[in-house]
């Protein structure tokens, strides 16, 4: 259970917020300041203001954010700043200035940014800091960054989505570029095979006693509102059942653990940790699209177009998002 709920927390708290929203809450300065910097980053593709980015990075580096967030969240937000600098190389020297003036936690965060968008000058800059006593605390991290190479080759569009944070990286790319490719990759996650439906059909086709069949089917129908026809081995649910079950887990979970009935359903279908993770990542993809569709009309447009060429269960989820 421990592994499953680590995944659950990443997907629900950091992705569904999403990471950039979690960031804003840690910055301080009141709601107006939070919204100001959040809008600068998440709407960069609509209203690019590169001149404001160094101040944003400085503010974030000096806030509680680098001290309180886990590495996967720091990495996703660092990628937003790095991706902007990849489009606006003149920002890189400004990032170096922020690295010098901020605190130790802030420096480690800015270093993550520089690793992704740095150049030869950044490499020289970091090597100079190795013998500077003012950067003694950062020396191990700098050595590790130099060992990996500057810039570190990272492209979220070229890698498989295996974790919730991978979806965050795709959103970061979209926020900066406004390109459809990151969103199509997220929609590809939604289009993955419906594992819960497959497992449920396998269970329906297996031999069960009448008592076991009634007890289990009653639980499933009551808890997740699934209409099942055992005689025809048919399930009457139009959407993606991985997304449906993940939503059920979210709604019924108690602090730190799933509900008793959720565990019963998991036992009936013999769902492994890996299978729960698979379902939660698909749901995270859907929820992230839902959260962005109102504030980003382009998301609605891309979902509308993508729905035309996807399977019926994915079409159902995308149509629900754009309604």
Tell me what the structure shows.
- There is one protein chain.
- By secondary structure, the chain is mostly helical.
- 70% of the residues lie in helices and 2% in strands.
- The protein is built from 19 helices and two strands.
- A two-stranded antiparallel sheet has the order 1-2.
- Helix 2 runs antiparallel to helix 3 and helix 12 crosses helix 17 (273-292).
- The relative contact order is 0.11.
Strand order of the largest sheet: 1-2
Main beta-sheet strand count, sense and barrel state: 2 strands, antiparallel
What integer is the average pLDDT?
87
The helix/strand class is mainly alpha
Q: Which key features would you list for this structure?
A:
323 residues, mainly alpha, two-stranded antiparallel sheet, 19 helices
Brief account:
By secondary structure, this protein is an all-alpha fold. It contains 19 helices and 2 strands. The protein has a two-stranded antiparallel ribbon.
Write the topology of this structure.
Layout: H1 2-15, H2 19-27, H3 30-42, H4 53-62, H5 65-68, H6 71-87, H7 92-101, H8 104-117, H9 120-129, H10 139-148, H11 164-177, H12 181-190, H13 195-205, H14 210-224, E1 227-229, E2 234-236, H15 241-252, H16 260-269, H17 273-292, H18 297-307, H19 312-322
Antiparallel strand pairs: 1-2
